[in-house]
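Below sits the subject:
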Amino acid sequence: MAISNLQKARYSYNPKLPGMLRNGISEICVKDGAPTESVADQEKIKALFPNTYGKNEITFQKGANTSAPKKQVVGVILSGGQAPGGHNVICGLYDALKATDKDNVLLGFKGGPSGLIDDDYIEMTDDFIDQYRNTGGFDIIGSGRTKLETTAQFEVVVEVAKKHGLTAIVIIGGDDSNTNAAVLAEYMAAHNTGVQVIGCPKTIDGDLKNEDIETSFGFDTATKTYSEVIGNIERDANSAKKYWHFIKVMGRSASHVALECALQTQPNICLIGEEVAAKKQSLSEIADQIADSVEARGNRGDNFGVAIIPEGIVEFVPEFSKLIAEINELLAGEKTAEFNALPTWADKYAFIEKGLTKESMAVFAILPVGIQQQLFLERDPHGNVQVSLIESEKLFAELVKNKLAERKAAGTYKGKFSTLTHFFGYEGRCAFPSNFDSDYCYSLGYNAFMLIQYGFTGYLSKVSNLSAPAEEWVAGGMPITKMMNIERRNGEDKPVIRKALVELDGAPFKFFEANRAKWAVETCFLYPGAIQYYGPAEVCDATTKTLALEHQK
């Protein structure tokens, strides 16, 4: 297999571990913290997890290792979408296993959770692992989105575990995947299988975080990758001086990626979905907000700019959410076939007009025709609108264009408005991980083995104090149930990890809020450039702006 020079160089990078994990595994002991409870619905969560609920948080520190020695056979899976650094989690887990006992075994189950069910695996070796150190992607064993949640699935996993003599399973994934890890851990404990289950926090969306999990892995690299390209576009905009760029970035349920990219690049506009929801802003009000910036800049001769839009923005707009709910009801059951049989868009439009409330029809009517039609194309498996397919960057470009036409007619706007639209998503999911993500992920994997060695199950591998140098990071673990609440999913109450939204009273948003009025009118662009792997630590090992502001460093 041909490899690039950067690949060769990254293979030899030696990730930094937290100080307490550098002493050698024989000199690491456990310090117990306080018992935990779930973030909400405590009695319901406790009833669902009687064997794994309420356990103590723990940290590792220097001291004699008191764990009972035994051969470990560990299975590992990658679950959900790719995030930079996943390979290093596996490398850290492998190195800790082998450093403890060269006879320990790591089995990588292929294609995500389905690999466990299908017993499709590879045994990790030094030569195999060394091909993936500090590289992006999940191609080491692949990933998948199968959910481990039914008793039938758990029974199969137990049989696979028995066949291989598994002592533990490590699930590397996001909030849904780690919810599944908690449920699997409870099942394993309830049936005395002796198999531990440990989770690792992954998602580039940044919404798997709380007071314990300061950031999910991959967020740093992905946002730096997007910010590089946004900075390039800003430089181009400032050079050509004739385009407004509307850029959609990842973030279906939260706006962390958009906010971090804004902090990195200082665009003229960045929409934050959580603020839109809190203020109950309409599509028209959001379009006016953007148009105000375009008008102010255009009237001073700056007919260019950059607007960042989170992927899930329209779901935060109350009137749009109501519209989606009505469309889902309008096309329920046999009505979808009736609608699809109508010969022209005019016929379909009349059908829609008859079926929507006056308020929702008013919202629908202001949408560009292309967006209107997108709402009635492919449905998800439950028959609902696939909101993630809506091209919100094009939606707002068109809405702003219409607003500016009204202002030009009224004589208040004297500029020119030409747009280009972009969506940055897959470009950031498999980038070479930054030094921060390389170090953080390796530490998460190494730390996951320490949790296994000390007999913990239903725990999330936790590394904190991440805004400090790696030497000062703190390694430990927390029960996954601490992050859970009950939510309604497909008509049933389900225990799930609560998604972390952008905190409007948090330091990162407050910094953005204090500066955005100036950014909206003036050209304050920052050009962060490409991720740096070699050079001064303040350049190469820097954390995200979000983490730095949260910890005021």
